[in-house]
């Protein structure tokens, strides 16, 4: 399942990221925020407009705003 498909308040582990589908500077930023394979995440909430963008993602004790296009590049598994 993609991170974009994860329901709110469900915890998951990122098992794969399609880094080539992201711009190099975007991948660097995500890694700097600790978003990489093996990271446990949770969707806090989604944007309120039609596109449901951005996604508020809990990573450790941080809440990070993430574009849906980035979330689609990440495969997760429930934990």
Automatic annotation (TrEMBL):
Keywords: Iron. It holds the Pfam family FeoA. One of its GO terms (molecular function) is transition metal ion binding. Residues 1-78 form the Ferrous iron transporter FeoA-like domain. This is Ferrous iron transport protein A. It comes from Altericroceibacterium spongiae.
